[in-house]
Design a protein that fits this description.
This protein is mainly α and 194 residues long. It is 74% helix and 0% strand. It is built from 9 helices and no strands. Helix 3 runs antiparallel to helix 9. The longest helix is centred in the C-terminal third of the chain and has 29 residues. The radius of gyration is 18 Å and the shape is globular. The two termini are 29 Å apart.
């Protein structure tokens, strides 16, 4: 259910009520990391460079929202650059996800939202089977992944030639990548207590 959202204040309370439950700490850390990333110098700087590039390179007749695409592409292409320099990151991520206790997570999430979530087991299974993050080493695969996202938002998909635009966007990510490393080091030092 895409309408369901975790709220940091509620998760913080659950962490104090149930400090032994690592799921709440993991969700809390995800919320904080996501907020930190989207406010980081790296995100702002790369977004501000990629968005105008998309405006210039995507024909006006193409049903696309450059502000939305720039946001998604900063995330996807950051993963691309990380995986190109360290391909084992995807395996480490999926191995950690595989080792999680999915039934316990399902029960806790259903309790949090006060409703059954049928199909969540299938979601876990498909997520682990598809291993989409591992495909982000290829810009061609990122075009496919981007198209899956934008179809859900009723935007027009891109043809395989869009990879040239992604290549130019990747240059921006690469150039500003040292800022990302500094931002991550700051996050680890100041916001990662568990």
């Amino acid at each position: 259910d895409r309408k369901l959202r975790f709220h940091e204040s509620a998760i913080t309370k659950l962490m104090s009520d149930e400090p032994h439950v690592m799921v709440w700490k993991g969700i809390h850390n995800h919320l904080r990391a996501d907020a930190f990333f989207h406010q980081s110098e790296f995100f702002k700087k790369t977004y501000d460079k990629i968005r105008p590039l998309l405006v210039r390179r995507i024909p006006v007749s193409h049903n696309a929202r450059p502000f939305f695409l720039a946001h998604i592409l900063v995330e996807m292409l950051t993963d691309h650059v990380l995986l190109k320099s360290n391909p084992s990151l995807a395996d480490e991520f999926y191995n950690a996800m595989q080792s999680a206790h999915h039934d316990d997570i399902k029960k806790m999430i259903e309790h949090y939202f006060q409703k059954p979530l049928p199909g969540i087991e299938n979601h876990f299974r498909i997520f682990l089977q598809e291993r989409f993050l591992a495909s982000y080493t290829s810009l061609e695969e990122i075009v496919h992944a981007l198209n899956r996202v934008i179809r859900r938002t009723r935007q027009e998909p891109f043809d395989p030639g869009f990879v040239t635009v992604l290549s130019d966007c990747t240059v921006i990510i690469d150039q500003d990548f040292p800022i990302f490393i500094n931002d991550i080091d700051y996050f680890r030092t100041h916001f990662f207590p568990y």
